[in-house]
Specification:
With about 350 residues, this protein is of the alpha+beta class. The chain contains nine helices and 17 strands. The longest helix has 21 residues. Keywords: Carbohydrate metabolism, Cytoplasm, Hydrolase, Magnesium, Metal-binding.
């Protein structure tokens, strides 16, 4: 019997569809000698839930799940129907996966104790960031952080398992539901992005080893807050305008961050007169994106401190956020310092 070695067919008829998320996760398991597949399973559970949420978002206008739900969450924000749907989907996937002992969600007042004392991980998440934009067909997203519990496995969940600084994250990521659906994540070994191929039902590696530009020419801030922010912030924005930088602000955190991560830019949500402690949540928004930013060579601060060094003191703690290209973040901090000194 004659045989021949397999040779990949790279012609137009035999083009490669790429590496799937599942295969990529498996190939990276050796990076975590402390784990035995649990972290990989959590990432798969999140990917599965995001596929379901993606389906619900795409048919929202046809299935009466867009618009307000009628309740407000712990943040005092009006819940959208899709907020509730996404929260259910992610909580259900993480519960059935069996690797998580507790969940912190923007949509729930308290920690969700899964009564799974054998679970080694805690997940903090914003199930659907920017969901009010769904009614006008603007990109929205999911943000998540994964922490290892610090108390012994087998014991009840404790506050110290939850209230960990961002530097203790073992993985973090986001899903962007836009013109295409992307899952971007890091486990502390760089950042990789995967695009969802709906006909195959799989995420494929499309953005390997994402590296943020050192500098950029995009600034993202709600300039309607001009009268409520510090002189330092306003002075920095004026400097951006003098350089003919582009103002790009979608009002959907994941979408704004994703664009600046790839193109080079800075996203700013500072403290304001109405929100002196900032608006974005530390545990499940700022920490996750800061981890991704730093792994891609970018930077994230609250105006004074590195985001990942902040020790949380409350579940839904808020923080100002300056995040993006390292040179732009550093310069914005200099403007804030100069204003403090002059005062």
């Amino acid at each position: 019997m004659k045989t021949k070695p397999y040779e990949p067919n790279n012609s137009a008829l035999g083009y490669s569809v790429g590496v799937t998320l599942d295969r990529f996760i498996k190939s990276k398991q050796d990076d975590f000698p402390f784990a035995s597949g649990e972290l990989s399973q959590i990432l798969r559970d999140i990917a599965l839930a995001s596929k379901i949420v993606n389906r619900e978002i795409n048919r929202a206008g046809l299935s009466n799940i867009s618009g307000a739900f009628g309740n407000t969450n712990v943040q005092g924000e009006e819940q959208q129907k899709l907020d509730v749907v996404a929260n259910i989907r992610f909580c259900r996937a993480l519960t059935k996966g069996g690797e998580v002992c507790a969940i912190v969600s923007e949509e729930d007042d308290e920690v969700i104790d899964l009564q799974n004392s054998s679970g080694k991980y805690v997940v903090a998440m914003d199930p659907l960031d920017g969901s009010s934009n769904i009614d006008v067909n603007i990109s929205i997203g999911t943000i998540f952080s994964i922490y290892r519990r610090v108390t012994p496995v087998g014991s009840p969940i404790q506050p110290e398992d939850i209230m960990q600084p961002g530097s203790k994250q073992v993985a973090a990521g986001y899903v962007l539901y836009g013109s295409s659906t992307m899952l971007v994540y890091t486990t502390g070994k760089g950042v990789n992005g995967f695009t969802y191929e709906q006909s195959l039902g799989e995420f494929f590696l499309s953005h390997p080893n994402v590296t943020a530009p050192e500098n950029g020419s995009i600034y993202s801030i709600n300039e309607g807050l001009k009268s409520q922010v510090s002189d330092g912030v306003n002075n920095y924005i004026e400097a951006c305008k003098e350089r003919n930088y582009s103002a790009r602000y979608i009002g959907s955190l994941v979408a704004d961050f994703h664009r600046n991560l790839l193109k080079g830019g800075i996203y700013i949500y500072p403290s304001t007169a109405k929100a002196p402690h900032g608006k974005l949540r530390l545990l499940y928004e700022a920490n996750s994106l800061a981890f991704i930013a730093e792994q891609a060579g970018a930077s994230a601060t609250d105006g004074k401190n590195r985001i990942l060094d902040i020790k949380p003191t409350s579940l839904h703690q808020r923080t100002p956020l300056y995040i993006g290209s390292k040179a732009m973040v550093e310069e914005s901090q200099e403007f804030l310092k100069e204003t403090e000194i002059s005062q």
